[in-house]
Design goal:
Aspartate Aminotransferase, domain 1; 5-stranded antiparallel sheet; 4 helices
Length: 151
């Protein structure tokens, strides 16, 4: 019985061998942690869909690869675990000399799954509040004056 070709196979086939093997390792870790996840492409990159929601993805970079949780919360939730890793707001970067450990991949996937509807949510990450008057809503109790149309 042969496995049906995944859209991820075509993307990986076009990569240089070193990056292909790096991303195939990450793919195996995700598949092992989420065997019921569906492989797909999202925003043109290899991704995994669970319960109709994209929960993880990856892409090759010049230096190695990037892991995408497809959530603005996941990486912030695990900030302590990600100390020392290069990252942006939406991606975690890794290299062949420093691939993502399986324990970390499992934590990333568990955090992302907890964000799905119908699952218990982790407490939100504390965010810095804007200083009063620094844009957005006016401070409580103050009135915003409208400019008079008469000048």
């Amino acid at each position: 019985m042969s496995r049906r070709a995944s859209p991820i196979d075509a993307v990986l086939a076009e990569l240089p061998p070193d990056r292909r093997s790096l991303l195939q390792g990450l793919r195996r870790m995700i598949r092992a942690a989420l065997p019921s996840a569906e492989e797909c492409l999202s925003y043109g990159i290899p991704a995994f869909r669970l319960e109709g929601r994209v929960i993880a993805g990856f892409a090759a970079t010049a230096a190695g690869g990037s892991y995408y949780p497809f959530s603005g919360l996941t990486l912030g939730t695990l900030a302590a675990d990600l100390a020392g890793w290069s990252r942006t707001r939406s991606a975690l970067h890794f290299t062949k000399t420093r691939p993502l450990p399986e324990v970390l991949v499992r934590k990333l996937l568990a955090a992302r799954r907890s964000e799905l509807p119908g699952r218990p949510r982790r407490p939100p990450v504390a965010r810095r509040r804007k200083a009063p008057g620094a844009g957005g809503k006016p401070p409580p109790g103050s009135r915003r004056r409208r400019a008079s149309p008469r000048g």
